[in-house]
Amino acid sequence: MTLATAQASTARESAIELISAEKVFDTDGGPVSALARTDFSVRRGEFAVLLGPSGCGKTTMLRLVAGLERPSFGSVRVGGRNLWHERSRDKRAVADMGMVFQDANLFPWLTVEDNIGLPLKLRGVAKAERRTRAAGLCALVGIKGFEKRRPRELSGGMRQRAAIARALSYNPDILLMDEPFGALDAITRDMMNIELQRIWLETSKTILLVTHSITEAVFLADRVALLSPRPGRIQEVIDVGFARPRDVAVQSAPEFHEIVDHLRSRLQH
Fold this sequence. Notes:
- The chain has helices at 3-13, 58-66, 91-95, 112-122, 127-141, 156-168, 186-203, 214-220, 254-268, and strands at 14-27, 30-43, 47-51, 73-78, 81-82, 84-85, 88-89, 97-100, 174-178, 206-211, 223-227, 234-239.
- By secondary structure, the chain is an alpha/beta fold.
- A hairpin with a 2-residue loop joins strand 1 and strand 2.
């Protein structure tokens, strides 16, 4: 195999690639380096997690992948395509991605089905098809029967389920998630982790999730990328080989605690 063939094969296998990607913000106090030059890739269909202390550049890295920020140096590739061409984003690359934030950001005046169908409406999809798609996604994320409810009538966990359904509405290849369960109580968060794993197994999406919870990272991930304090750089990437589907019992396994303790030690130092 030639070098060119190997590079092309890697590009096909990688859903996301950061190549010497760096982000420096201009502030009134001078330039602030949020992310040091970083190389990282996420394979197609993989569940990858970015873990690190607050302010380490996890969200900045995710926003670079989402095209919400332009790298100060280096490049980002999505689905084998460069995300940026000068100052313009590649629309096809952006269309491959859905994003879920810590706040569900549902429109309070819209029903659940209309919130889920909004990205489809913006793409010109007919109302009947939007409702059919919303009904299927409500079943997928576990809120079937709540299609006509308003966000204020839902619990926090249910609102996040609706936000995940909205991000999946136009069938993106990649799902980006920024602390999606950070505002939930511990029991609901555990339940949502199990549900997210189920959704991922059923849809085969590529997921890149940001969290500061070590347990959540190890429970969900195929690989955990540990970031250093700011300016963030990837210190270590750990493979998590527990069989799928995982339930909360895996968190009692000695091997699980070994990974958690190792990551906690690295974070503390």
